[in-house]
């Protein structure tokens, strides 16, 4: 049985459209993994097109119509992983799949567009990298556990009955209780914005906050934190917090200190420190003092200092999307004694 298909075409000087060879579809019945890029799907395909064994499909810089995409997807009976990047000549894609567990999106459309996840009863993780102008609507994904990166660069993302516009959530009486791991992508520390988002995920166990100067979009009309309105995940669920590109300045310390003093069951607070910071014992000792670590809400908490990865997505192997925690590349533990401060 043929297990792997990889078809890409790269024009060295100027990208030119080339049709997908018919031979690719002829082996559809035997494929388990397919990676297709730099080509055009036919305008029409037989409704009976069948990929009975295909478990992962990667589409990158392909031209495909909404109808053909639906036919291809409906023919993938056991598809578990779907990777989509720079899909062309279409501004709307719809996904309904009884088997999909992982969807990864990177620069989905050339311009503005909409991704509609209608029915994904087995979807566990929705990974968003390098957002463009797409709107993402998730109508039904009752098992969604891993989500990110949520960023103000995404104009709108709807999950269940909560609408995030530029990462600012709408008010809702029905939070998203299935999500356990969440990654946020902001230009700078914004505590009010993060806390407003956390209200939507009361059962969150692991939070990544990635600070990135390249995120140009700013968050507007952020609701102010109300201390008398408790955030449930901080009281009973959040076990791990990872802050990347941490510099140790006043803004960073103020953000992190809130979690040190208010996350009641946290086990680890990991600081992915910027590479231009020299992490030595004095620097860590000063940070612990500024963070008021001795007064931490969870006496079981450990504060760890390591380095930040340049890009979690750049480290992600798109051939194997099943890694237990896809955001774990954000933080790299050092092996010497200075990498961890045990209190």
Automatic annotation (TrEMBL):
It comes from the Eukaryota. Coiled coil: none annotated. SMART domains: FBD (SM00579). InterPro entries: F-box_dom-containing, FBD, LRR_dom_sf, LRR_FXL15/At3g58940/PEG3-like. Residues 232-306 form the FBD domain. It holds the Pfam family FBD. This is FBD domain-containing protein.
């Amino acid at each position: 049985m043929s297990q792997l298909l990889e078809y890409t075409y790269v024009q060295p000087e100027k990208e030119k459209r080339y049709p997908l060879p018919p031979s690719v579809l002829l082996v559809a019945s035997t494929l388990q993994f397919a990676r297709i890029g730099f080509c055009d799907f036919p305008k029409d395909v037989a409704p009976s097109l069948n990929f009975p064994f295909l478990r992962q499909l990667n589409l990158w810089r392909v031209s495909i119509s909404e109808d053909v995409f639906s036919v291809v997807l409906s023919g993938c009976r056991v598809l578990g992983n779907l990777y989509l990047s720079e899909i062309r000549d279409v501004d709307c894609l719809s996904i309904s799949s009884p088997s999909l567990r992982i969807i990864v999106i990177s620069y989905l459309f050339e311009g503005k567009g909409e991704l509609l996840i209608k029915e994904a009863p087995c979807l566990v993780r929705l990974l968003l990298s390098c957002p463009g102008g797409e709107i993402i609507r998730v109508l039904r994904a009752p098992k969604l556990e891993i989500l990110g990166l949520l960023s103000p660069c995404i104009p709108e993302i709807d999950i269940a009955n909560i609408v995030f516009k530029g990462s600012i959530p709408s008010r809702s009486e029905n939070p998203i209780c299935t999500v356990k791991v969440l990654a946020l992508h902001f230009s700078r520390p914004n505590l009010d914005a993060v806390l407003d988002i956390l209200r939507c995920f009361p059962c969150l166990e692991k939070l990544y906050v990635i600070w990135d100067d390249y995120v140009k979009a700013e968050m507007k009309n952020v609701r102010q934190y109300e201390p008398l309105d408790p955030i449930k995940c901080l009281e009973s669920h959040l076990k791990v917090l990872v802050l990347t590109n941490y510099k140790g300045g006043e803004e960073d310390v103020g953000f992190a200190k809130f979690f040190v003093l208010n996350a009641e069951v946290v086990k680890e607070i990991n600081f992915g420190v910027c590479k231009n910071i020299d992490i030595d014992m004095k620097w860590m000792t000063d940070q612990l003092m500024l963070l008021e670590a001795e007064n931490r809400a969870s006496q079981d908490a450990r504060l760890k200092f390591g380095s930040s990865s340049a890009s979690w997505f750049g480290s992600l192997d798109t051939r194997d999307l099943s890694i237990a925690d896809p955001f774990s590349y954000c933080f790299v533990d050092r092996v010497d004694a200075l990498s961890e401060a045990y209190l």
